[in-house]
Specification:
alpha/beta
Length: 119
Amino acid sequence: MTGKILLYDTTLRDGTQGEQVNISAEDKIRIARKLDEMGIEYIEGGWPGSNPKDARFFEMARKISFHTSRLTAFGSTRRSNVKPENDESLTAILDAETDAVTIFGKSWTFTLQRYGSYP
């Protein structure tokens, strides 16, 4: 096999979703720096439109030059009946000014009913 395996770490988003897990934006920066030192290619920083702490993290991260890692912003496809340019979540993802973004789409009937369908 000649291909390279790229590592994509979700610790700063998925790893903080446990009950009673609460880390500050400063903690997230420290963890991101350690992941960069480890050589992780992609670090998912979180969902910038979801809460003030993640927005602050991305604001702080803009001032950091990572050596090996690319920071990514996470978020979902647009809400139904909202144009992409008017979707606050998509705007927050772009405003994070990361090298890459991770967009997920909902396909489970429960989430489509709860959060709205996507064309």
